[in-house]
Amino acid sequence: MTHDSRNSGAPSDPEPPPTYGELLGEINAEVANAPLRTTRAADVATIRHYWRVGSVLAHPRYRDAVGTRLCTRLSKDLHAAFPQHKGLSGPNLWTMRRFADAWPDGVDLLPVSRLPWRHVVTLINALDARPERDFYALRALEYGWSNSVLVHMIDIDLHLRHGDSAPGPPPGTGHFNLYAISGGEQ
Questions:
Q1: At what angle do helices 20-32 and 68-81 cross, to 10 degrees?
Q2: How does 97-110 read in b/e, with b if 16+ C-beta sit within 10 Å?
Q3: pTM (two decimals)
């Protein structure tokens, strides 16, 4: 069933940590190296970029210091440095960190990397378990679900009715075959 855990576990952070400048510098470098993307075709690159930003925020060096309040401060500093970039709000930065926590080994070869950001946010906010997230990500990609359909399928617990709630890579491959799923390029 659905569970909203947007701010669960978020430490309060009244003062920036001593490593704040280093943290801001790493995220600045990532944002500076990512060209602006406005088309849906670029969603894959955007999702990978958001995961990389989240992985910086989730890195053990910053992990204990990065909470929702620090993400708000980071957002202000990032907007000052990159006013043309969208998606750098405090809540979105926090969601990027949760994204990296949800898929700690990366997303490059996973179906979630092919979904729009709104779908990814839905998976993160609505589900706690990785196998369920992967099940719905694969189905959303495979069947072209809108976000509304994805929410509905989660609400009706489709994974419990389907019988394969823990989809994984085909045996012996070590990864999903995204070519077979989406017919597109990586």
A1: 50
A2: bbbbebbeeebeeb
A3: 0.70
